[in-house]
Amino acid sequence: MSYETIQFNLSEGVGTLILNRPDVMNALNRQMRAEITQALTTLSDDVRCVVMTGSGRGFCSGQDLGDASAATDMEATLRNEYEPMLHAVRNCPVPVIAAVNGVAAGAGANLALVADVVIAAESASFIQAFTRIGLIPDAGGTWAIPRAVGTARAMGMMLFADSIPARQAADWGLIWQALPDDEFAETVAARARHLAGGPTLAYNGIRQALTASFDNDLDAQLQLEARLQGQAGRSSDFREGVMAFLQKRKPSFTGS
Are 114 and 234 within one domain? Predict the structure, then answer.
């Protein structure tokens, strides 16, 4: 499928979604939001993992402030455009890695943080820039960030709008990993290939269980684990995993 504001490439089971407006640091406009949503909700069965990254020197600078349609009714834009995009990332049928290659600001940072795993180059940074223009964080930031780093750090990030370097973000637990720039692309590719060759049903069970754990008590979580484990235990991947273990070989998972 042809897109104007993003690129989508498939290789070895990895779908790479590239935010492609480098002249404006990949700022999000209406068309880009729609194209991200479409790309992630129309994946072929060949896609076993998605890597989302930015073109040029940044990941995403957030909302395109030159997009007059968004400024006209911010609430409608968030409900009608941002929410479907964020749900498309969160509910993607395969794991999503946000490969943050540079600055991730405002809604751009929160787009990355809603992914399953965030890997950043050490030169990257995360900025909740909203108060700089008199707004509150949106695009899921007030949901994702306190869950990752706690209320104190989330509040400081949002009130002061400081730039948080990737290494500090990793130390805080905001992201999974910060890598030297010269190792970034190779490591992301290796991580993505690992997930693309893995047990997709089990991965989805992990994603569901961790998300639900914040609202469940122990009994509810144990019941959910039992149900999801029952599904995984009936999968072809489980049978293959056990057989490979007994035969002392690498498993060949199919995601079924």
Answer: no
